[in-house]
Amino acid sequence: MISRCWFLGCIAVGVLLAPFGAAGQQPAKIPLVGLLSTFSPSEAMPWHRAFRQGLRDLGWEEGKNIKIEYRYAEGRLDRLPALATDLVRLNVDLIFTDTTSPTLAAKTATSTIPIVVASASDAVESGLAQSLARPGGNVTGLDQIAPELGGKRLELLKEIVPKLSSVAVLWNPRNTTSTRNWNELQLPARQLGLPLHSLQVSNADELDQALNTATRTRAGALAILPEPVFVANLKRIADLAAKNHLPSLFHLREFADAGGLMTYGPDRSDLFRRAAAYVDKVLKGAKPADLPIQQPTKFELVINLKTARALGLTVPQSVLILATDIIE
User: Using CA atoms, how far apart are residues 183 and 179, in angstroms rounded to an integer?
Assistant: First the structure.
C-alpha cells in the first residue's frame, strides 16, 4: 500500500512540475543580421542572392534559423550613417556590408558589433583593418583589391583599341574608393602613354555633361571607376558612351550586360558567397579581429562583341582567349 501511494505521489508531483520544466527550456536564439548596402535592392540583388546561397550551403536558412534586416542607401552615401545607427539600435548580432562606404559607416556606429564586408576596396588603406592577416578590430571579410586592377583594364583596352591616345575617366572625388582608384590609375596610364581626362561626377544629373566633355576633348575611350551613382546608371552610361562612339570599360560584369564594351574585375557574386563563411564563423563565436581578410580568387573578363562591332572594333584573339564570357 505504501509503495502504491508513493508511486502515485511521484506521478502527481511530476505532472505538477512538468510545465515549469518546459518553461525553463528556452528556444534557441535566432541570430539577427543587419545587411547594410550602398545600392538599391534591384542593383544588389545578384550579389545578395549569392550571399544567401552561401548561407544556405552552411545550414543557415533565412526566416528559419537566421533573420536578416535589410537597409539600402539607394546610391546615396549620405544615408549610410543613419541606416547604420538604425541597425545598431536594433541590437543586431552582426552587420553585413557590401563595400567600403557602408562598412566605414557601420564601423563609426559601433566598435563592438561584428562587421563582415563582402567586397572592400583596400581594407587597410581605408582604415577598416590594421592588416589583412590580423584585422585587429570588429571588421573582417573580403577585399576586392580594385585599385590594382585599373592598370590591367587599361592594358586590355589598349589591346582592343591599338591607336588609343587618351582616356576619359568618370570618377567621384567625394567618394574615397573612387578617389583611391583615380590616384592608382595615374602610374599605369603614364607607363602606357595614355593621358587621362578627369570627368568628375557626383550625381546622375552631371553624366550627360561629362560625356559631352569627353567627346569635346577627343578622348579615345571611357573608363568608369567604382561609384554607386555609376552602378545605378550602368545602362545610361553604356548608351551615352555608344552615342558618343566611345569604347567603355568598368569593373562589374553588369556593365557589359548593359552594353558597355568590356569589364574586368573580381567575380563579385563569388565574393558575396564566400563572405557567408565569415558570417557563419562569427555567429559561432569567432572574433573578427582574428579572421584574416581574404582577397579575390576568381576574376571576370567580359567582352561585348555586339558593342565592339558597333564601334568598328575587332577584338584580337589574344584578348578573346582570356575572356570568361563573351556577349554576342
Answer: 6
The letter for the amino acid at 272 is F
Q: What is the pTM of this model?
A: 0.84
Domains in the chain: ranges and CATH: 32-145+268-296 (3.40.50.2300), 147-266+300-327 (3.40.50.2300)
| pLDDT tens per residue across all 328 residues of the chain | 445 544 444 444 444 444 444 445 556 789 999 999 999 999 999 999 999 999 999 999 999 999 999 999 998 889 999 999 999 999 999 999 999 999 999 999 999 999 999 999 889 988 999 999 999 999 999 998 756 688 999 999 999 999 999 999 999 998 888 898 899 999 999 999 999 999 999 988 999 999 889 888 889 999 999 888 899 899 999 999 999 999 999 999 999 999 999 999 999 999 999 999 999 999 999 999 999 999 998 999 999 999 999 999 999 999 999 999 999 8
What is the C-alpha separation between 153 and 145, in angstroms, rounded? 13
